[in-house]
Amino acid sequence: MVLALKQIQIDRLARIVRWLLAVVLVIWLARVLADSVLLWMAGPQQTPTVDPSMLRLTAINNEQGGALSPAEIERWKLFGIPPEQAPEQRAVDAPETRLRLELLGLFQNSTAEMARAIIAEQGKDAELFRPGDKVPGNAELVEVLGDRVILRRQGQLETLRLKEPELSGTVSASAPPPRRRSQPVVQESQPEPAQLLPDGDPAQQRAMIIQQLALEPVTEGAAEGYRITAGAPAAMLSSVGLRPGDQILSVNGHPLGEEQGDISALQEAMASGSASIEVQRGSRRFTVNYPP
């Protein structure tokens, strides 16, 4: 009997607990529902901030039904902003230098650092210079142009123009002509710029190089190369490892000895800034690369 009474009390207590739990759950759900309704009715409490660096697109309302014009699309910079190109720097026109120098040859290149100039102090051997090198007379080579070079001396820019060739056509080094003084350049006598080739007249440059390097053809009128004679500048020969008596057979695969092959080799070497020189010394053949 006692056990029956205890079981009845336990069942009654369990029903009370379940009822309390149900009431609490209903109250919690009602609270959540009320908060959701209030939040939906009130809306956000603050306007979200927009990072000004972020790209924003504005709606376009026009008569074409919202079509985008090319100008609008271009203003979006979808592919970024291209870097600004630095303006091309060219040396300003400078007065003629008073240094006792002669410009004997030029090797232009699209890369300014690869350009070269053959400069000689009057009465001395010629040497090869690049932009930034010191030249005789306490001057610095600044830039190599098509028909002249720009020097800097005591902070001032000066012009050294290409020495006019003394011979034209085929040049023989058997009897080199005497050195003559450079004539002053008269501005009125110069041809119009449209009549000048970008890198100078190749035929004149060929004749000048043959003369100044004291080259003589191995066989006159044949593409058998040139022989270096004793009158060649020693400094230039030592820079590429050559010596008098060597025969220069080809440059960059172009046989030397005829005008057309010589000009092709000269133009390719000036465009690339480098040369592969095939040389014969006695019975031995080898290749010299310039720059080394």
Automatic annotation (TrEMBL):
Q: Name one GO cellular component term.
A: plasma membrane
- Taxonomic source organism: Isoalcanivorax pacificus W11-5
Its localization reads: Cell inner membrane
Keywords of the record, alphabetical order, are: Cell inner membrane, Cell membrane, Membrane, Protein transport, Transmembrane, Transmembrane helix, Transport
- UniProt superkingdom: Bacteria
Keyword Transmembrane helix assigned: yes
- Pfam families according to UniProt: PDZ_6, T2SSC
- Give an example GO biological process: protein transport
Q: Which SUPFAM superfamilies would you find in this protein's record?
A: PDZ domain-like
Looking at the record, which segments are called Disordered?
163-202
Enumerate the spans annotated as PDZ domain: 227-256
Name of protein: PDZ domain-containing protein
PROSITE patterns with a match to the protein in the record: PDZ (PS50106)
